[in-house]
Amino acid sequence: MLIWLLDLFSEDTAGALSKITLRAALAAVISFTLAVLFGSRWIAWLKSRYCEPIVSDSPTVERLHRHKSRTPTMGGLFIIAGILTAIAVLGRLDNALLQMGILVAVGLAMLGAVDDLTKLRGGRNGMSARKKILGQTTIATVIALLAWRLHSDVPGGLDLAIPLTDLRLSLGLWYVPLAVLVIVGSSNAVNLTDGLDGLAGGCLIFTTCAMGVLVYACGHAELAYYLNLPHIPECGELTVLAGAMIGGLLGFLWFNCHPAQVFMGDTGSLPLGGLLGLLAVASRQEFALVLVAGVFVAEAGSVILQVGFYKWKKRRIFRCAPLHHHFQFLGWPENKIVVRFWIASALLAVLGVASVKLTLRDDRAESDSKLRAGVHTELDR
User: What is the DSSP code (8-state) at residue 333?
Assistant: First the structure.
């Protein structure tokens, strides 16, 4: 919106703010500032209405977290509010992928709010798993169909690159179920990780930084070619979304670090995970997300393994799932678990970005002169 207004009055200022990297940085500043300035008021309002009930199928988990019973939840409201404000001010709202990001944020935040309110009003575990998955799948399917239509017009936009090879699978309509799986899976993985003070928020910051680099590179023709990434012209604008997410998460972590003054709740974890999945789908970096978001994958995987193995053998692999509870049961202090998971997330983010160059290209013998002659260079737009 701001870009459109500046275009009307000042070409020089609008030209400076047309730079994606600058707008992404400013979006981070805006969402962080809003979270820090208004966070205390939000928390006071939430505390008078929405305090987290400490409910678990494990008596040990309930005992370990009993002291958090008066901590307000639904803190995701002010994260999403900050993100949407930053996007409204600095994003190009005519960008199709950015519009999809707004739909994901609003749709999954509303679903998460219903789930949180259900818990607060006496529903022990919130919405039923079936209803929650149905809601997530419906939203993800709408986004996947819109993304499929957009990527169908991009050369190679529906191809899935196999890591460490020069193979590319043309997905066609199979693109849609893959996109749904990534968005829903990412949303649930972040939701499962949100169990300790600062855990999900800190890991999301590192993961979003890595995905922000990848969406920027995919939107930049020369960088995309150099890194063997698909060039998706619309994709670069999602860097502004990634910047807003990082700023909002930093602002939230200001209050969510141990001992937490507020919890994210499903209101925050579902949309933030969904946005992470959208960044991967939009940039066609679904495989990279598995590595970059390795902590979230491990958390979700631990639950799947625990449930599946128990149904099969009537025995448990972990002392408790998700994985962070397993380490709590081993006697690790909460702060130690959180910081070590942050370290793992940071390392995986670096490895994930570095690994994209390892994907081979079948035309890698082409000369640089031919590249410059045939590929339109998009400097920092």
Answer: -
CA 314 – CA 44 distance, rounded (Å): 45
Distance, CA of 271 to CA of 275 (rounded, Å)? 6
CA-wise closest residue to 249 among 39, 4, 11, 50: 39
Backbone angles phi, psi at 269, to 5 degrees: -70, -40
The distance from CA 369 to its chain's CA centroid, rounded to whole angstroms, is 38
CA dihedral of 224, 22, 32, 110, whole degrees rounded to 10: -50
CA distance 159 to 218: 14
| Runs of H (alpha helix) within the chain | 2-9, 11-17, 20-47, 59-64, 76-90, 96-120, 129-152, 175-193, 199-218, 221-226, 238-256, 265-283, 286-292, 294-313, 323-329, 334-355, 368-374
pTM more than 0.70:
yes
HSE at residue 118, side-chain half, CA atoms within 13 A, is 17
CA angle 139, 28, 278 (to 5 degrees): 25
Percent of the chain residues topping a pLDDT of 70:
83
64 against 318, higher pLDDT: 318
Q: Where are the domains of the chain?
A: 20-374
Q: How far apart are CA 39 and CA 76, in angstroms?
A: 11
Handedness of CA 93, 2, 251, 125 (dihedral sign): negative
Residues 260-264 have a mean pLDDT of 90
